[in-house]
Design a protein that fits this description.
There is one protein chain. This protein is α+β, with helices and mostly antiparallel strands. It has helices at residues 109-119, 135-139, 148-193, 248-253, 268-271, 322-328, 332-335, 352-355, 365-408; strands spanning 4-6, 14-16, 20-23, 28-32, 47-50, 59-63, 68-69, 72-76, 85-88, 91-94, 98-103, 125-127, 130-132, 142-145, 201-203, 211-213, 217-220, 226-229, 243-246, 258-259, 264-266, 275-277, 282-285, 287-288, 297-300, 306-308, 312-316, 341-343, 347-349, 359-362. Helix 1 packs across helix 3 and helix 6 (322-328) crosses helix 9. The longest helix is centred in the middle third of the chain and has 46 residues, at 148-193. 35% of the residues are buried.
């Protein structure tokens, strides 16, 4: 058993007595990437551009030139993914929301990546875009620093274990993706063709949509409802108890197609000047981290008076079944129509003006209700499987985090 000492850092706890704790600035030169816009990306490019996102290994796209040809660590400086750590090598580029750590000496970069991944969650600073870890803050982050031979042993152990964990996660994520595709296909087919397989069809007049039942209509959103704007709720306004409210980020993180109860709360005082929402209102996310988040919508079916924050677009109508409309507005066809005004890499936006001219197929009200009830029943079963798989992924990720923590802090006998 190793002799341990207090690391001097509360959340780090004890470490082997012959280990050091060092600041990042003492072992790395710290830099940043450069501004690379979406317009610069080239489908014929050979060299990846790494960004603030974490999907697809952080790759935003490709260009034909490269800024780096070395092994170094990058971290996400801004947004909800702030503090996410990657080990990079080969020829590549980084955007300005990627910090860069280039080793000053010969280091075991795999170990240092694990060690840094273990500590950055404790250093994230809350920000309007989610969080931040800027260069000066990264410079003063402290990590454990064992002798090089032990670094190599720990890195080899974690590489082997984490590869097995990652293989498990990838299989589960593939299954998750298949279920989500199955759900999307079910919604698309039912919303555009209905439940009666023998009904006569007609051309919708829209190439991507194809044929619809001949007694249905294609109707422009602005023709049967009005658009309103949420206002004045920031993340800092959210509290544990109070008036029900919805923040734009809730739409793509907390709900699927509908909800009867909102999970966020604001004070009664804050609610006095906030736009209220009613049963049947369709709520669009006006901002998000990715283009996939933008324009996602849910329908509020609750009875409580509730409130919508800024960047929530409210669509209010009374003629149609609100749940049917929410399904219709979440079809692949409609998602392809939502015009997006990109304001940089971190946040992208959509506005009511992008939504008002969207046309959707509208059956008689009775059919709308039947379709909505059918989809609710079928999607609930798929969502139950999706939730189960997400929980499995979450648990294995928690195990991975614990494993890395115990290994890089020297509390395992390898």
């Amino acid at each position: 058993m190793k002799n341990l000492k207090n690391s001097g850092i509360e959340w780090l706890g004890e470490i082997p007595e012959h280990w050091e704790v060092v600041k990042i600035k003492h072992i790395f030169n710290i830099g940043r990437g450069r501004v690379i816009s979406q317009e610069e990306l080239d489908e014929n490019g050979n060299f990846p551009v790494y960004s603030s996102q974490t999907t697809n290994n952080g790759i935003l796209g490709y260009i034909k030139t490269y800024d780096f040809d070395c092994e170094q660590i990058t971290w996400t400086t801004d947004g909800v993914n702030a503090g996410t750590i990657f080990l990079r090598n080969g020829k590549y580029n980084c955007t300005n929301v990627c910090g860069i750590l280039k080793p000053r000496n010969n280091e075991n970069m795999s170990f240092l990546t694990y060690a840094l991944q273990n500590v950055t969650p404790y250093y994230k600073r809350p920000d309007t875009n989610g969080a931040k870890i800027m260069n000066n803050e990264m410079a003063n982050i402290q990590i454990v620093y064992p002798p090089l031979k032990e670094q190599e042993q720990i890195a080899n152990f974690l590489d082997e274990k984490c590869e097995k964990i990652q293989n498990f996660i990838e299989k589960k994520e593939k299954l998750l993706s298949l279920l989500q595709e199955q759900k999307q296909a079910l919604i698309d087919e039912t919303i555009t063709k209905g439940l009666d397989k023998n009904v006569k069809l007609k051309n919708s007049g829209i190439e991507w949509l194809g044929e619809i039942p001949e007694h249905w209509e294609m109707v422009r959103l602005a023709n049967f409802g009005i658009f309103l704007k949420g206002n004045g709720i920031s993340r800092q306004d959210l509290i544990e108890d109070g008036e029900p409210a919805i923040h734009y980020g809730d739409i793509y993180t907390k709900y699927e197609i509908s909800t009867t109860a909102l999970k966020s709360r604001i004070s009664t005082e804050t609610a006095q000047n906030i736009t209220s929402i009613h049963n049947g209102d369709i709520l669009f996310a006006g901002s998000g981290e990715t283009k996939e988040d933008i324009g996602k919508n849910i329908v509020y079916l609750g009875k409580e008076k509730a409130f919508a924050g800024g960047d929530v677009i409210i669509f209010r109508q009374k003629k149609n079944n609100a749940l049917f409309l929410s399904y219709a507005l979440n079809t692949k066809y409609v998602k392809s129509l939502k015009g997006i005004d990109s304001k940089g890499e971190i946040i992208v936006h959509i506005y009511a003006s992008n939504l008002k001219d969207i046309k959707i197929p509208i059956p008689p009200l009775k059919e709308q209700e039947q379709i909505a009830n059918f989809l609710d029943e079928k999607c609930e079963k798929i969502d139950s499987l999706i939730t189960k798989i997400k929980k499995q992924i979450e648990l294995i990720k928690e195990y991975k985090t614990t494993l890395i923590n115990e290994a890089v802090c020297g509390r395992m006998n390898l």
